Amino acid sequence: xxxxxxxxxxxxxxxxxxxxxxxxxxxxxxxxxxxxxxxxxxxxxxxxxxxxxxxxxxxxxxxxxxxxxxxxxxxxxxxxxxxxxxxxxxxxxxxxxxxxxxxxxxxxxxxxxxxxxxxxxxxxxxxxxxxxxxxxxxxxxxxxxxxxxxxxxxxxxxxxxxxxxxxxxxxxxxxxxxxxxxxxxxxxxxxxxxxxxxxxxxxxxxxxxxxxxxxxxxxxxxxxxxxxxxxxxxxxx
Length: 237
Fold this sequence. Notes:
The chain folds into two domains: about 1-110, no CATH class; about 115-150 and about 160-235. The protein contains ten helices and no strands. The protein has helices at about 1-15, 20-30, 35-50, 60-80, 85-110, 115, 120-145, 165-180, 185-205, 210-235. α3 (about 35-50) packs antiparallel against α4, α4 (about 60-80) packs antiparallel against α5 and α7 (about 120-145) packs antiparallel against α10.
């Protein structure tokens, strides 16, 4: 595991600490002709050698990471458009981590047991995370959709696209984490914070139906997250 952490730290330092914005802009503009792209790869190589103490034993893994990193970054600059910038960022990072995992397995495959990773506790955690995000969102929308008092006409103040969905995701994930680590006070703090933020909107609208709609949605969201957290706390330990 120490080897994986060293490889991960090298990646995090190379991609997020020692990569100026000017380098990113330069390679977006010049692509394969960008000297900053090669400098970026050089920084990664240097960090890997330093953290692995220049041990020649790991040269194969270092080459795998460096070559794959170059090809992934190069592919990204050619594929990236304004509307694909965000998704390509996550795809880019996922691919880098995948090759870091491959490099780790070159040396630690004997010590890595996949069956130990996919144990009951971790499988339950995955199931709970899926339920508390996407599944709960669909359940809540299905229950309260018939009462939606919000008119579909355009208004001067438009909300961000899918903002409510992602706020709900984060809200339930935080509640789940608080319960999983037995910090119930955090749930109360989150409920109080949400009440404060919502108070102004509900007061300004002077709409009783909207207030009831928001209250039902909030209680359902908190209830499902708390229930999921309790299930994991009971069966996941």
